[in-house]
Design a protein that fits this description.
This protein is an alpha+beta fold and about 180 residues long. The protein is built from four helices and ten strands, in the order αααββαββββββββ.
C-alpha cells in the first residue's frame, strides 16, 4: 500500500462525530483543569480522571513513543499535493494497545521544526478528556493510566482529518 493509499484509507475511517468534537472543543474544556499557560489546553479534570489519569511523574510499566510524521509538507512534498490539500501529517503509530490500570508513558516527538501539533484524547463515548499542545522540535512525556477498557481515539485538532489514531485499552493482566 502506498503512502497516498494509506492517507486515503485513514481519511475514509474518520467518523463525522470527530468534526463535531473538534468544533465543540472550546466548550468542553474545563477552565479549572487548565494549565496556567493556556485555557485551551488541559489535563483530565476530576470527572475525566475516573476514566484516565495523566501525570508528569511516576513509575511507568511501559512506554510508547508517538511521532509526528510529515507526509506532504511545503518543504519536501509534491507541490501539486500541498497546493490541493495543504500540508499533510500523520501520527506514528496510529494504533497501540495498553492494559487497564497499567501506568504507560506516552512520549510525543514533534519532529517538525516549524509546525505545532496537539494531542486530544477522547473517551469511547466521544467525550474529550484532555488536550495538550506539542511545540515544534520537542519531546513531551506523560504517564497515562487508563481505568476503563475500550477504544480511545486521539487527534491532532490542527491537522484534521488525517492526523488521528486509537488506543485500545485491554483488561489488566491476571495477578502474578
Amino acid at each position: 500500500m502506498t503512502t497516498w493509499e494509506v492517507v486515503y484509507a485513514v481519511r475514509r475511517r474518520i467518523p463525522t462525530a470527530v468534526l463535531a468534537i473538534l468544533s465543540a472543543l472550546s466548550v468542553v474544556a474545563s477552565p479549572a483543569a487548565a494549565p496556567p499557560m493556556d485555557k485551551n489546553f488541559y489535563l483530565p479534570d476530576a470527572a475525566a480522571s475516573k476514566i484516565v489519569s495523566v501525570s508528569k511523574t511516576g513509575t511507568p510499566e511501559a512506554e510508547v513513543i508517538i511521532l509526528s510524521e510529515a507526509v506532504a509538507i511545503k518543504e519536501t512534498g509534491p507541490k501539486e499535493t500541498v497546493a490541493k490539500f495543504g500540508e499533510v501529517y500523520a501520527w506514528s503509530p496510529t494504533f497501540m494497545a495498553v492494559r487497564r490500570d497499567t501506568p504507560t508513558m506516552l512520549t510525543f516527538w514533534n519532529l517538525q521544526p516549524d509546525d505545532e501539533h496537539d494531542f486530544m484524547l477522547a473517551a469511547p463515548d466521544g467525550t474529550v478528556l484532555m488536550h495538550l499542545k506539542l511545540m515544534p522540535l520537542t519531546k513531551t512525556s506523560y504517564i497515562f493510566t487508563f481505568h476503563r477498557a475500550g477504544i480511545f481515539n486521539f487527534y491532532c485538532a490542527v491537522h484534521q482529518p488525517e492526523m488521528n489514531g486509537q488506543i485500545l485499552v485491554l483488561p489488566p493482566t491476571s495477578a502474578k
